Hints:
It contains 10 helices and 8 strands. The longest helix is centred in the first third of the chain and has 16 residues, at about 80-95. α3 (about 160-170) runs parallel beside α7. The chain is globular, with a radius of gyration of 18 Å. It is of the alpha/beta class and about 300 residues long. It has one domain (about 35-305): Alpha/Beta hydrolase fold, catalytic domain (Rossmann fold). The chain has helices at about 80-95, 125-140, 160-170, 190-195, 200-205, 215-220, 220-230, 250-260, 280-285, 290-305; strands spanning about 35-45, 50-55, 70-75, 105-110, 150-155, 175-180, 235-245, 265-270.
Amino acid sequence: MLRTLILLTVCSFSIQPLARAQGPAWVTPAVRAPRVTHHTFESSAIQSKVSFHVYKPEVYGVEKQRRFPVLYWLNGTGGGLAGIAPVSAWFDTAIQDGKMPPVVVVFPNGLAASMWCDSKDGAVPMETIVVKELVPHIDATFRTIAKREGRIIEGFSMGGYGAARLGLKFPEVFAAVSCLAGGPLDLNFQGPRTRANPTERENILRTTFGGDLDYFRAQSPLTLAERQAAAVQGKLIMRVAVGSRDFTAALNRDFSALLKKLEIAHTYLEVPGVGHETLPLLRGLGAEQWPFYRSALAPISSKMK
């Protein structure tokens, strides 16, 4: 039997203007999709309910004593509800076709622009909610194997940024990291998207980072890679993937170059002709998609034989 693998992943299917809400939408509507369920838990960090969705593979309901890897999928800016059905279907098909072992996929509620970090003012403690509260809650509620060897964190766009930063910061929690078209991967928050949409940049910089570029830099995967290099060397299974026509491509290449310089082992994949779209990137990876998950799960599989 497999240990639990948590794959934290972020999904952004389109670039949309950020909603001007009255406050954080900590409880979202339920998404209806095969094998997907909607849940909430009580967060001590915000003294409120927080929602999440879970995909369970078919075998979860058949083998009642079996424990499963878990895949955490992190949403991109604008919120991730639209991506839950297609992404869960993508993994369901891969599992049924034998391309990857069965995993539980967790879709945390990352809000529209949390950047998967604790906001400077403490109003949106997203990192704390995910790492300190949601992960233990999942392990206590579902049949998971509650060890870092059984967890992957993955994400697309803002989610790729979040997966990279949380994976690098907490190697004791996550054993594998997948950064898909991650952003913003620069230290001045002046990448292509922010230059094209300065209003969005200012909104995120103000609400999440308190208008403080130093705080923004401290949260960056670039800074965390420098700080955590010794701690993660030889411990993380990591990949960075992006489409060649993605506006984040150049910065993802630079991120890969930094990881290489720091001797943080990883795989870098660039898919020709693909822009900033989740499923086209996943499909474009083709056969190169699956070795990452298999290698992350290999230690679990060998020990459970």
